[in-house]
Amino acid sequence: MIVAFSVSPAGGQSDSVAAAVAEAVRVVRDSGLPNETNSMFTLVEGDWDEVMDVVKRATEAVQAAAPRVGLVLKADIRPGHTGQLAAKVARIEEHLT
């Protein structure tokens, strides 16, 4: 499964969310699961339990810095398929050449 998620603090004292979001990204990267981060979402690939555990821990990392947290999550659940973070993009690129 691939999960794209965005977690951010709300209700804090600062206009910048970068430090809190960086802690969430650190959790994802330290998980050892395949992942990517862009300006809007972090993607993580693995089985249901390990991915949801990472999302939970990343959310908790942001929650440590803010009284309120927003979480947006989208999942591509496709049992038996791995390596899809790169493979899905490669299939699209084939059609663009």
From TrEMBL:
The cross-references to NCBIfam families, in alphabetical order and at most eight, read: MTH1187 family thiamine-binding protein
Q: In which organism is this protein found? A: Amycolatopsis antarctica
UniProt protein name: Thiamine-binding protein domain-containing protein
The family database entries (InterPro entries) matched by this protein are listed as: MTH1187/YkoF-like, Thiamine_BP, UPF0045_domain
Kindly list the GO CC terms recorded for this protein: cytosol
Domain Thiamine-binding protein per the UniProt entry, residue ranges: 3-92
Q: Which Pfam families match?
A: Thiamine_BP
What the record says about family reads: Belongs to the UPF0045 family.
